[in-house]
Amino acid sequence: MSINQTGRKLLFAAVAVALALGALHVGVQAQGTELLSNTTFDSYAGTGGNNVVPTGWTLTASIPVSSARQEWVFNEFPGFGASWEVSTSKATFTMIARQFVPGIRAGTNLRFSVYSNQFTCNKETSCIEGNIGYRISDTSSGAQTRIGVDPTGAQDPNASTVIWSNFIQPWDRFEQAIIDFQAKSDNGVTLYLYSSQSVPMLLNKVYWDNASLSVLGAGQIVPGATEVPKVVPFVTPQGQQPDGSIVHVVRSGDTLASIAVAYKITVDELRKLNNIPPDEYVIRIGQKLIIRAATVPGPAITYIIVTATYTPGPGTVFPTGTATFTATPTRKPDTSIIIITLAPTVTP
Question: In this structure, which CATH number among 3.60.150.10, 3.10.350.10, 3.30.450.40, 3.30.450.20 belongs to the domain 246-292?
Answer without folding.
Answer: 3.10.350.10
